UniProtKB/TrEMBL annotation:
GO terms for molecular function: DNA-binding transcription factor activity; sequence-specific DNA binding. Residues 179-276 form the HTH araC/xylS-type domain. PANTHER family: ARAC-FAMILY TRANSCRIPTIONAL REGULATOR, ARAC_XYLS FAMILY TRANSCRIPTIONAL REGULATOR. The keyword Cell inner membrane does not apply. Pfam families: AraC_N (PF06719), HTH_18 (PF12833). Keywords: DNA-binding, Transcription, Transcription regulation. It comes from the Bacteria. This is HTH araC/xylS-type domain-containing protein. PROSITE patterns: HTH_ARAC_FAMILY_1 (PS00041), HTH_ARAC_FAMILY_2 (PS01124).
C-alpha cells in the first residue's frame, strides 16, 4: 500500500453532513459487521453481504439500500480496481417524510418484506452522485450544493425499485414499528433492555413483536441486542479503550462473559482484534 495514501483509508468524513466515503486498499475475508441504515453507492470493488441465509453481491455501479441497521457478515474484494471505494449517504427522517409525500405510493401488499435491496445505478442517481463527488474538491461548493445533491439521490432512490425499503419507514405498519424499536435499542443498548417493554413502547404484543422482528431483521431481539453491544465494544477497543472498559460501557457486567461472546461472534479474542489493528 502506498504510504502517501494511508491517511485516505477507512471511513472518511466529507464536507457534506451525513455523507461519508469508505476506502479499503486490500479487501477482507468474510467477517461480522453491523451495517447502518442508509444508501451505499459502490464506486470501486465489490462486496458480498451475508444476512441469515441470504447472500447479496453489490459491486461498482451498484447501490445498496438498508432501511434499518442490520448485523451481517461481509467480504470485500478489489476485483480489477486499485481499492474498494464507496459512498455512504444517511437518510434523515425529516427529509424522508418530506420526499415520500412527493413520491407515488406502491400498495403495501405488493412490497417485499426484506429491508435490504441491491440495485444497479440508473442515470439519474449516477449523475447526482457524480455531482456530489465533484463538489468534494471544493469545500464552499460542497457546503453550498452538497445537500441538494443528497436530496436528489434520496428522491431518485425513493422513486426506484428499492424505494419501498425507505418509504415503508414512514408508515404505521409493522416494519415502521420494528424500525422504532431498533432506534430504542441503538440509543439504550448499554442499559438493561427488556424486550417486552420495547414491544409495548412500539404498541405491539410481545409475541407479535418477536415474530415481526424476526421477519424484518432476520434475528431475534436478544441476539440483535447482543450483536449491537459487541459491535459497539469492538469500536471502543479499536479506538484505544481497555477490554474491561469497553465491556462495561456496552452493558456487560462480566468481562469473562464478554470475552467469550466476543470470540464466539468474531472468531478471535478482543485482545487479538486490538493487536491486529495496531499492527
Amino acid at each position: 500500500m502506498a504510504q502517501g495514501k494511508s491517511h485516505l483509508n477507512g471511513v472518511i468524513k466529507t464536507p457534506v453532513d451525513g455523507v461519508r466515503l469508505f476506502r479499503d486498499p486490500t479487501g477482507c475475508k468474510k467477517q461480522p459487521l453491523l451495517y447502518q441504515s442508509g444508501i451505499i453507492i459502490m464506486l470501486k470493488g465489490s462486496k458480498r453481504l451475508y444476512i441469515d441465509s441470504r447472500e447479496i453481491v453489490y459491486k461498482k455501479g451498484d447501490y445498496l439500500v438498508l432501511g434499518v441497521p442490520l448485523p451481517a457478515e461481509c467480504a470485500a474484494f478489489t476485483d480489477d480496481d486499485d481499492c474498494i471505494l464507496g459512498l455512504v449517504v444517511d437518510v434523515p427522517p425529516s427529509l424522508l417524510v418530506e420526499l415520500t409525500q412527493l413520491t407515488p405510493r406502491e400498495a403495501s401488499s405488493a412490497r417485499p418484506t426484506f429491508t435490504v435491496s441491491q440495485q444497479s445505478l440508473d442515470t439519474t442517481i449516477a449523475d447526482a452522485t457524480h455531482r456530489l463527488l465533484a463538489a468534494f474538491t471544493n469545500k464552499n461548493k460542497a457546503l453550498a450544493l452538497g445537500a441538494s445533491y443528497v436530496r436528489e439521490i434520496i428522491y431518485h432512490v425513493l422513486n426506484g425499485p428499492a424505494g419501498y425499503v425507505l418509504s415503508g419507514l414512514t408508515e404505521n405498519g409493522h416494519y415502521a414499528r420494528v424500525a422504532k424499536a431498533l432506534h430504542i435499542i441503538h440509543e439504550k443498548y448499554a442499559t438493561s433492555l427488556n424486550v417486552e417493554q420495547i414491544a409495548r413502547d412500539v404498541n405491539m404484543s410481545p409475541s407479535g413483536f418477536h415474530r415481526v422482528f424476526r421477519e424484518v431483521v432476520l434475528d431475534t431481539p436478544i441476539q440483535y441486542i447482543k450483536k449491537v453491544r459487541l459491535a459497539k465494544a469492538r469500536e471502543r477497543i479499536n479506538g484505544g479503550e481497555r477490554v474491561s472498559e469497553a465491556a462495561e460501557a456496552v452493558g456487560y457486567k462480566s468481562v469473562s462473559q464478554f470475552s467469550r461472546e466476543f470470540k464466539r461472534y468474531y472468531q478471535f479474542t478482543p485482545l487479538q482484534d486490538k493487536s491486529s489493528e495496531i499492527a
